[in-house]
Specification:
Elements: E1 2-6, H1 11-20, E2 27-32, E3 39-40, H2 48-58, E4 62-65, H3 74-95, E5 100-106, H4 130-143, E6 149-154, E7 156-158, H5 167-177, E8 185-188, E9 194-195, E10 197-199, H6 200-212, E11 220-223, E12 229-230, H7 231-241, E13 247-250, H8 271-277, H9 285-294
Parallel strand pairs: 1-2, 1-4, 2-3, 4-5, 5-6, 6-11, 7-10, 8-13
Antiparallel strand pairs: 9-12
Helix pairs in contact: 1-6, 2-3, 3-4, 5-7, 7-9
InterPro entries: Epimerase_deHydtase, NAD(P)-bd_dom_sf
Family: Belongs to the NAD(P)-dependent epimerase/dehydratase family.
Organism: Streptomyces antibioticus
Length: about 300
């Protein structure tokens, strides 16, 4: 089985590629903008006919799209998160219409959730900013493509190799660099929001199941822990794992997430993924934080 992974050197892509490589008979092919890509692809700028030639050369049985932008201006986000999946689908219809497409979406597509409520795949979508809006546009392109495709709407991934662009990775780097003694002070922004944190290794397992599951699959599946956790709990857990003995202060100028600062509650219902893929997360948040701290961060 030939599996083409776009964005294979990114945070999610690297874990996905590693997981897929252990599948019996699988040959994982890397695609993306990095120098080590077997198939150079830039979804932000590629023309459909050019990408179709690349896909024909790769001859994949399945394509996993882990490519995406989490930061940058609205134009950058739209080019990668909205245009990219649309171009990919058009090229796949031309070059490999029988290939399974697994596209990684985001729980940010839903927007603010009602406190205490699990969000199902049929819930209305009302993204709070450009990131969620562009990811939602990418999902729309995939689900309307007519291909054998599924979108995995991923919650907040955490675990080994987390990038500094997100709070877990940024906090890990900060804890490694700062004094961790009793007089240390860690100043962060408002940590009262609730998030559905899912171990990145569980995300990779979900992708594996989505690649190999028999068709047809539901168009969208939530991939999360199915549990809303205060961001404060993640911060305290990681600080404890690092041996931080100082004080954590939440300050107004400590920074807010550009992607989800207006969303106070986010939690996904993952029952559909269990029914369709036989998947549930197996790692706890504490295990994810332990793996994040112990990793060398050089994935």
């Amino acid at each position: 089985m030939r599996i083409l992974v776009l964005g294979f050197t990114g945070y999610l892509g690297a874990h996905v590629a590693e997981r897929l490589r252990v599948l019996p008979g699988a040959r994982v092919l890397g695609a993306g903008r990095s120098a080590g890509a077997a198939f150079p692809v830039d979804l932000a700028t590629a023309r459909p006919e050019e990408l179709a030639k690349t896909l024909a050369a790769a001859a994949p049985d399945a394509v996993v799209n882990c490519a995406g932008a989490t930061g940058g201006d609205a134009v950058t986000l739209a080019e990668v998160n909205a245009r990219g999946p649309a171009v990919l689908c058009e090229a796949l219809r031309e070059a490999a219409p029988g290939a399974r497409l697994v596209h990684l979406g985001s729980a940010a597509e839903y927007g603010p959730g009602a406190r205490g409520t699990l969000v199902t795949e049929s819930a209305a979508t009302s993204p709070a900013g450009p990131y969620g809006a562009t990811k939602l546009a990418g999902t729309a392109a995939v689900t309307a493509s007519g291909l054998d495709a599924v979108v995995l709407r991923v919650g907040n991934p955490v675990g080994p190799g987390a990038p500094a662009a997100g709070l877990p990775g940024r906090l890990t780097a900060l804890l490694r660099e700062t004094d961790r003694g009793p007089d240390a002070v860690l100043r962060l922004g408002d940590l009262s929001a609730h998030r559905d944190f899912v171990d990145v290794r569980d995300v990779a397992r979900a992708v594996e199941r989505a690649v190999t599951a028999p068709a047809p699959l539901p168009p969208v599946l939530n991939i999360g822990a199915g549990r809303a956790v205060p961001v404060r709990e993640l911060v305290r857990g990681l600080a404890a794992r690092a041996g931080f003995r100082g004080r954590i202060e939440e300050t107004a100028d400590g920074g807010r997430s550009v992607r989800s600062g207006e969303v106070s509650w986010q939690c996904s219902d993952i029952a559909a993924a269990e029914a369709a893929l036989g998947w549930r997360p197996v790692h706890t948040l504490d295990e994810a934080l332990a793996a994040l701290w112990e990793a060398d961060g050089t994935r």
